[in-house]
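Let us work through a complete example step by step.
Step 1: write down the sequence.
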Amino acid sequence: MTKEKAQARREHLQKMRAQQKSKERRAALLMWGAGGLVIVLLVGVVGFYLVKQAKETSLGAVANYKYDAGQHVWNAVTYKETPPVGGEHNNYWQQCAIYDKPIHNEHAVHSLEHGALWITYRPDLPKAQVDALKKTASSTGQQDYMLVSPYPNLPAPVVASSWGHQLKLDKADDPKLAAFIKKYQNGPDTPEAGASCGGADAITTTADQAPLPPEPKGTQSQPPTETISPSASPTNK
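Step 2: predict the structure and record it as tokens.
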């Protein structure tokens, strides 16, 4: 083989190797570029989901109020908020449960004082929406501190209340409802944390079934005894 042919062969091999390396670099760049794009897309999707979830469960619309506790009365009370979130209330509290008829404000507010979460809804709310409310109430938070009842003339289709806090909602399946329950049921503002929302002295009737109890006369009857419930610890926080 002549020197010219040998040189030409070496140059050809070098050219082939350079082309091969160039192809490998392009393949690597494409691979890393595609991988980077996938990562960017994943980060974007996750970020979008987190932002969307945070927005859907935001409690920025919660209205906050300040009321003194322990104001037990026997008379009917006129409340500023609809439904009420605190203030004077009857000596007897409402048994925490799901009711299909309205209950007395005065009993419900006493339950709020004990840490209950009260979900109220317009009486004409569609049955599917009512069923959704009951499902949330039965699966979120502490069931023995949950009140649900229809409420005439509500300012919104659904209103969730705790002592000193209230959230108005347009629909029963709003994710904010569960977030409100988890934050405010037996929350840090509960005046009588640990007091029972049931027991022998709790009121189990609805407003149409029984009037507010009359004030006891003399020493024949004593106000109900407020006991501590073992399930009152804020395990859902």
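Step 3: interpret the result. Helices lie at 3-56, 105-113, 127-139, 175-184.
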